[in-house]
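Hey, can you fold this one?
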Amino acid sequence: MLKVSIGIIENSSDEILISNRENKKIFNNHWEFPGGKLQDRELPEEALVRELNEELGIAPIEFFHIDNIKYHYTDYTIELIPFVIKQYSGVITSKEGQGLKWVSIEQLSQIKIIPASKPVIEYLLANN
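Sure. Predicted structure:
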């Protein structure tokens, strides 16, 4: 099973940051929450900190975990390990050239987002 830590980052306008999967083999041009795969023996929190630094140039300071999501695709299963980021240091920058966009929680349900992220959107809508 593929384990992925993701960060749900909200700005002062109550918008959520998403990034575009441009030029990817799987789910090309879909949107997703920033984050990435856990490396060997890496804790989910460590992966979150590493990935957000690599992708966005930020360091999460205050964050909390919400329920993991297991999603079964045709060929594999993914476990999303979501964290809501309450505070971070640094300035968000597209360090890997990916498209970034701030959207309202309501807009999230209308965006072409990877299927495994849909339960995260349901959580956000229910807890807004």
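The first strand starts at residue 2 and ends at 9. Let me know if you want another pass with a different chain boundary.
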